[in-house]
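Please produce the structure of this protein holding adenosine monophosphate.
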Amino acid sequence: MLALAGYQLGVEFKFFDPNSGAPVGQIGQLIAADYGNHAALSRFLDGVDVVTYEFESIPLSTIEFVAERVTVFPPVEALEIAQDRLLEKSLFQELGIPTAGFAPVESLQDLGDAAGRMGLPAVLKTRRMGYDGKGQTVIRDMSELAAAWKKVGGVPLLLEQYVSFQHELSVIGVRDSAGREVFYPPIENLHREGVLRRSIAPAPCATPEIAALATEYSRRLMERLEYVGVLALELFSADGRVLANEMAPRVHNSGHWTSEGAETSQFENHLRAILSLPLGATTPIGTSLMLNILGHIPPVQAVLAIEGAHLHLYGKAPTEKRKVGHVTVVAQDPAAIEAKVATLLEALEMSGAAL
Ligand code: AMP
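Below is the modeled complex.
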């Protein structure tokens, strides 16, 4: 999606992915090799002016190797921090960005101590490599500590207070190397089993106060990190408070609606930022609702028959719960969205799409 937004600006692309069947191979030159393969990385870097990434589990050593040779945006430090929930939450704390209470956990003993201090319920998460709800478990009772440790333990962990949030939000900010910044309006996100299912923007739940706080937290992070590119910040809104959960130093699933629902998409703005081009307006065009399609290819005819529906398929083989595409519906009237989404859900469910 980044490249598709970039070709029309006259940008040329080359891609690196360990998977030789990566969907991006359908649209450009793909070098498929392990992240540790320096010869392949050097071949990839040959003739390249700027490198960016849209996956945050790339080994840091790979990005460091690249950054020693070619300019990399977003900055390596942002990736390093986003890869470790303890570094991430500590940075939020340093910047005065509220979070749920948290404590590092290295042993079952630590877990008992932290749970005793913090109280339950709490969420035990792996510090690294957790995404889409993987590597985490909710603990509701002290009797569940050993089972929780068995489930995710053996690696460095973080225990977090469970937040009884009313809504989940995200803010997508864009910053360039001259320090210019733009922000999309906050987005309201619905997750199920830890996986993003749908996003609506602008977020109906975001009062002007909530929107201002969320945007201010994103600004603090981008400025501290001397950030360049798109940064997504995921937040909980709970009783008027806004708590930061995590950040993603990349274009984000909750911003996919911007392709049709905003003046400039997050993909184009990410490229504009890393290429020192003027940033585009982030103004929304009406209300947008984005639905992720998980596990099944939907009936294209039925989806496209819905006025205002835009289908994006990623060219991925559908396996259970894998995100294989999304649909965005844009409407001027928020009330019209609901009716369109009902039709859309019907169309998608006919295919058995696991929404
Ligand atoms: P994460 O991997 O941290 O983004 O968590 C995935 C999802 O789990 C979030 O989007 C929330 O729905 C839920 N979650 C994560 N942390 C907490 C928490 N401290 N309290 C309540 N729910 C949480």
